[in-house]
Amino acid sequence: MSRITDTARNVYHQEMAAATTAPTAQARWTHLERAHIASQPDPWLHTRNHVAMLSLALHQRDRREALGPVLRIIVAAPGSSTGRYPEGNTGRVAAGLMTPMPIPADLATTLFR
Fold it and tell me: What is the pTM of this model?
């Protein structure tokens, strides 16, 4: 069952759209990371975000970054469904699988008002 708010869902869609039009790879990653944070409570959106991260990593031919989403795609939906996900985690390889991270201030303000 999804625990995502309408606001978080809107943030997710805005960030995913921005990722598709971002001018640089780093900007695309930043938008995908922000979308990841917003998507964590929703099994479907969370999984879709990891698929998008995998797609970008493959496009960039970044093997290390591509391996991370493979496991995360498998565990994203169950983690979201059970509420067992690390809040604020960006979803990237450099972020541990279960490591909570600070939520950017603007997202925290938007997501938790």
Answer: 0.94
